[in-house]
Amino acid sequence: MSEDEQPKKTGIELAREALAQARADAAKRQSVPGQRRRNTRVTPRDPKRSRSDPQAFGATIKKLLADRGWEEKAAVGGVFGNWAGIVGPELAAHTSPGAFEGGELVVNCDSPAWAQQVRLLAGQLVKRLNQELGDNTVTRVKVVGPQTPRKPGQWRVR
Which intervals of the chain are annotated as region Disordered (predicted)? Predict the structure, then answer.
């Protein structure tokens, strides 16, 4: 067997390597896999419920998003995934959401005519997006037309 040919690793060997890597990463972060972080927050407990009781999935995900500060990012991701449902199929056929940062949504259009149409609808689009995402999440819509270079003199009348 040459140096280039290494035997295939089994699932157990791969799992051991992954665990070793996770432990090394945890050591860098100064935490140990499997150990729970101490909860410093005081939360009222329902005497009828134990921490080991199953939790509702939706509520748990919402709590995780809130704890990590990912609520807005998750909502914006939902808008990107459901663009046609939010703006309608005709507008979605000619536009797509590009980026979202600091309350500004960039909308890419496939033609200058559609870019102008979206500019005219920007106020309504902001209202509709804020209905989906929550008040004042989107403050501005920036419309970007097609990025095709124009040849000099292409539209010049002689």
Answer: 20-57
Instruction: Report all structural domains of the chain as residue ranges with CATH numbers, in order of start.
Output: 69-144 (3.30.300)
DSSP helix, strand, coil percent of the chain (3-state; round to 5): 45, 10, 40
pLDDT in tens, 48-105: 666 677 778 777 777 776 777 776 666 666 677 788 888 889 988 999 888 888 888 8
Quote the pLDDT of residue 64.
Answer: 74
What secondary structure does DSSP assign to 64-118, as a single string? HHHHHT-HHHHHHHHHHHTHHHHH-HHHHHHEEEEEEETTEEEEEESSHHHHHHH
Q: Coil, strand or helix: which one is 37?
A: coil
Q: Which residues contact 47 (CB under 8 A, 6 or more apart)?
A: none
Q: What is the pTM of this model?
A: 0.51
Exposed, middle or buried by CB within 10 Å (0-12, 13-18, 19+), for 129? buried
